[in-house]
Design a protein that fits this description.
The protein is of the alpha/beta class and 540 residues long. The chain is 24% helix and 14% strand. The chain is globular and about 80 Å long.
């Protein structure tokens, strides 16, 4: 399938607004309590009215759902809970007719233990060719009773090992859960299979692919211990990864497809290598996502991000929240407004009014920055993090931590569409897979859609006005302490463009000279000044 004429902008991804769809929780089309592709298709007009350029879908493939679909059993089949492959093709085509592109998720580090390859490896026994597709090793110790190495789990807070022993004595590697065995990317069959998977979905009209855990695929063939530190790292950011992604880029270029990588790296130079012109197009910006609500630190994050991307000419990406992270209005209403998995805890108090005010300002900040912006479903409704009872918790992160880590279910609760309908209009005949808080109907789409002052109204108008900033580079303007002020017009004075001002200081801030107020995240004070935790877009 090719792109329709109105969608053939090869550089669309450089400045797109991309909406993340967590299918299980978006909308339920068949009433069984789980979101599905039919539900998404029915809500495409909503997404078109929101004004987004593309949809990124979390995995919709056949899966036992031991980790929310990130344990893939078959990339060429859609899980029956979500629909069928034919329905996915219809969704891709219908979205495209509305001018909305589709990005799918791939999880190349591992597969499900129910994948045909792993089932064959399990049955074949030690030393078999089938086991060469994974990382099987004998154990250490006199009886092979100890794991082959000391690598830590990549589930934050997990106390579990990354090796599981089979009855025949072999151990297999899984950086995440035992149901997610790691693939051996040194094996040519693994590389061929994933290139075929990319072609399979590009042929069905997807515009891009998001790569989960993109820096973890390659492993030191000796699988050495990590204790005491090791350089290069035995399983993070290894140099051989870049040859893999150069091969992938060649496939994507056949279809004008794009890649966005999930790359968590502290070294800016190492990070930028993934964005060279013959590798990935973009990568997620976790520095901005995790940054506290502090003017100095936000400016540093923005400057650092733009500097990281500049040497390779790649656009930055900006995101406030995703399916793994505490909801923005909740996080910004806490004493500690940054995000860190290691410090996430039960019972953390939050001021939702404060958090909502800051989240509205942050929405205007992120949408004014140069590059692409990702909006996680429900952020445009101002949804808070939900408290999930322990007996309804689904996330393996919670169980792998022994119940000490809250996990990620709180940001994955099914969306509210209609306040007066059962389960806030999610579409279910029975209770959804995760329970909705009692206050959920107050955030429903039908409560917000005709209110220009609602969070939904703000997002719609901001996305509509976003082109006002043009394509120029970011230029910081003089501003009082605690205030961020910048333009993206070609001229340093912001002539013939738009200007963004965000006040994080305690005192109201005077607005710079302007000809028109385009949009504000909250009302100005009686003297026309910008109150604390408020943002404004100005025509200059």
């Amino acid at each position: 399938m090719g792109q329709p004429p109105h969608a053939r902008n090869a550089d669309w991804w450089r400045s797109a607004v991309i909406y993340q769809v967590y299918v299980r929780s978006f909308a339920d089309g068949d009433g069984d309590g789980v979101g599905d592709l039919a539900g998404v298709r029915a809500r495409l007009p909503y997404l078109a009215e929101l004004g987004v350029d593309a949809l990124w879908f979390n995995p919709w493939y056949l899966s036992p759902m031991k980790d929310g679909g990130y344990d893939v059993a078959d990339y060429r089949a859609v899980d029956p809970a979500f629909g069928t492959l034919a329905e996915a093709e219809k969704l891709i085509a219908e979205a495209r007719e509305l001018g909305i592109r589709t990005i799918v998720d791939v999880v190349p580090n591992h597969v499900s233990d129910q994948h045909v390859w792993f089932r064959a490896a399990f049955a074949a026994g030690p030393g078999s060719p089938e086991r060469e597709l994974f990382h099987f090793r004998p154990g250490r110790g006199a009886q092979g009773q100890l794991p082959p190495n000391d690598w830590p789990s990549q589930f934050v807070g997990s106390t579990g090992p990354v090796w599981t022993r089979l009855p025949d004595g072999d151990w297999y590697l899984h950086l995440f859960t035992p149901e997610q065995p790691d693939l051996n990317w040194a094996h040519p069959a693994v590389r061929r299979e994933h290139e075929d998977i990319l072609r399979f979905w590009f042929e069905r009209g997807v515009a891009g692919v998001r790569i989960d855990s993109a820096a973890l695929l390659a492993k030191d063939p000796d699988l050495p211990d990590l204790a005491g530190g090791r350089d290069p790292h035995p399983f993070v950011d290894r140099d051989e990864l870049h040859d893999i992604y150069r091969s992938w880029r060649a496939v994507a270029d056949e279809y004008d497809g794009v890649f966005v990588g999930e790359v968590w790296l502290p070294d800016p130079e190492r990070f930028a290598r993934y964005l060279r012109p013959d590798e990935l197009h973009t990568a997620f910006n976790f520095s901005f996502l995790a940054c506290p609500w502090d003017a100095t630190r936000l400016r540093t994050s923005i400057d650092t991000t733009l500097a990281e991307h500049a040497p390779v000419g790649a656009p930055a990406t900006w995101v406030l929240c995703n399916h793994d992270v505490t909801r923005t209005v909740t996080r910004y209403g806490r004493e500690e407004t940054g995000f860190d998995f290691a410090t996430k805890a039960f019972g953390t108090p939050t001021d939702l009014a404060l958090g909502t005010r800051r989240a509205r300002a942050a929405a205007l900040l992120s949408l004014a920055l140069p590059g692409a912006v990702y909006v996680y479903q429900g952020e445009e409704l101002g949804l808070p993090e939900a408290d999930i009872p322990s007996d309804r918790t689904q996330d393996p992160m919670y169980f792998r931590s022994g119940g000490t880590a809250p996990g990620r279910d709180g940001c994955r609760v099914p969306l509210p569409w209609a306040a007066g309908e059962p389960y806030a209009g999610f579409g279910s005949r029975e209770e959804p897979w995760l329970p909705q808080p009692a206050a959920w109907p107050s955030y429903a789409v039908d409560r917000q859609q005709n209110d220009p002052d609602s969070m939904l109204g703000l997002y719609r108008e901001a996305i509509r006005l976003r082109p006002s900033f043009g394509d120029g580079p970011l230029t910081w303007l003089p501003a009082p302490e605690g205030v961020l002020s910048f333009t993206r017009a070609e001229g340093a004075d912001g002539a013939d463009g738009a200007l963004c001002v965000v006040n994080l200081a305690a005192a109201p801030a005077e607005l710079p000279a302007h000809t028109r107020l385009l949009l504000a995240s909250g009302p100005l004070d009686h003297r026309g000044r910008l109150p604390q935790d408020t943002a404004a877009w100005l025509r200059v």
